Amino acid sequence: MQSFLGKPVYKGIAMGPVVVLKHDDFQVKRKKAEDTEAEIIRLEQAKEQAEKQLQVLHDKAVKEVGEDSAAIFEVHQMMLEDEDYLDAIHNMIQTEGVNAEYAVAVTGDNFAEMFASMEDDYMKARAADVKDISNRLLKNLVGEGEIDFRSMEPSIIVAEDLSPSETVQMDKEKILAFVTVHGSTNSHTAILARMMNIPALIGVPLNLEEIHTGMKAVVDGFQGKMILEPTGEICRQTSDRIGEETEKLQLLQTLKGKENITLDGKKINIYANIGSVGDIGYVLENDAGGIGLFRSEFLYLGKKDFPSEEEQFQAYKKVLQMMAGKKVIIRTLDIGADKQVDYFTLEKEDNPAMGYRAIRICLKQPEIFKTQLRALLRAAVFGNLSIMYPMIISTEEVTQIYEIVDQVQRELEEEQIPYKLPEQGIMIETPAAVMISDELAEMVDFFSIGTNDLTQYTLAIDRQNAKLDDFYNPQHKAIMKMIQMVVDNAHKHGKWVGICGELGANPELTESFVRMGVDELSVAPSMILKIRKAVREMKVLPKG
Ligand code: PEP
Ligand code: MG
């Protein structure tokens, strides 16, 4: 038995088999091949395996996200048969007498570079596909197949690190816990773990060479501990604790259907944060009053190309229909920083968190923005939609956004496509937005305070930097004062204000937020009932 300490990002306990997830960035070495024919046979086997994997992925995607999105796997299958690509690999093995891994890696890089330098945007975007195909072949060659979630029993995923796009692609039903060696508590991967209700630890000093898929482990998200190959006694204690936790959660269930009302009669809204249509189940299960933050960028992550207007429209429409008239606030694309997508071909930046991201991309590349806005305005007909814009720093940006929204409305009218203009609000997540919240409040319908980024920008602390986790204090006096300022400015203009950053989900602060006048808290679905409990046990007027 071995135990390791890390930082918990979601409090919960899990026990089960480990699955070690290795990453794509192989350190491929050039080796002299004694038998080049044997290398060619290995390559053929890896290719056959890749064909089967792509077929499985294609069929799964058709079922879950439709033919359009699944088509990318057909493109990959075609690329895998591309003669120029295959000839280049064969040729390198035979003429240079190198190992198949090396030939695949070099050919993959060469082809990716060639596509990336093309003028045509479609061809440019194929660079990511060639890389993907080459990585798949490499994985198969070195014997690190992908996790097949269909056949996997519920397991604890262990990895060096996980990106948000990897996390969103996982089958949540099959994950008991996440454990990573790196990562920061405020990263989107951590947020996803909280949203998925999954015990998770980061910063656990594991040597992945020594951990094997199939080992048993306990993950304790309360104590920030992982125990490998636990003793029988620890397993018994853990089972008891899992039972107790389940009981506590069941107790919370009695709050379902009850109002979010304080002992002295003040009501507030408690909504849920989600990242995909698939999360709606958790929203309904936990009795949220609405959706306060749908991080729409997750529709773009883990994909090979931009989601079409139709694909987005269908996703938004589904959420609105399932929420049946309850408020659904969809945040427009917040790509950039830790949420990177290959097909956006964003340049590498020195300070991505302070870089080309979110609304900045949308205003500079309005075609991307307009596709999303068209889908949103069309979907608005099917429920109670609000749109929210991220990373705002000026009134000019809001003016520009409204101009683009006007254009979209005109286009839809000309095309006689039914649409509705929903309520429009902004995220307050930069100190600049806080300071001009008085002016901004006149322009928009509501504010939602993004304390994750607001903390990062106010305290000058990169939320991705695990070394700074101890300094990252979203309860800093400066942040609390900012929240009060934003609430006062919003109310002065008759606008409502919510908090959708992780701070809003801290039950110890619920009382303060309600007293400050916050109208809505949007939290991970798993936190809805806990916050409801805190609201129902407090008084706005101090006791006594
Ligand atoms: C925030 O910054 O607080 C927020 C809710 O947005 P995200 O975490 O997606 O950046
Ligand atoms: Mg943010």
What's the pLDDT, averaged over the residues?
A: 91
Strand order of the largest sheet: 1-8-7-3-4-5-6-2
Helix content: 40-55%
Shape: globular
Distance between the termini: 53 Å
State the total count of DSSP E strands: 16
**Largest sheet, if any?**
8 strands, mixed
The DSSP helix count reads 19
Q: Which band does the percent of strand residues land in?
A: 5-15%
Estimated structural class? alpha/beta
Task: Summarize the structure in words.
- The mean pLDDT is about 90.
- By secondary structure, this protein is of the alpha/beta class.
- Helix 2 crosses helix 5 (about 120-140) and helix 4 (about 100-115) runs antiparallel to helix 5.
- It is globular, with a radius of gyration of 25 Å.
- It is built from 19 helices and 16 strands.
- Strand 7 and strand 8 form a beta hairpin.
- Bound molecules: phosphoenolpyruvate (PEP) and magnesium ion.
- The site of phosphoenolpyruvate has 11 residues, from strand 10 and helix 16.
- Magnesium ion binds near residues 429 and 452.
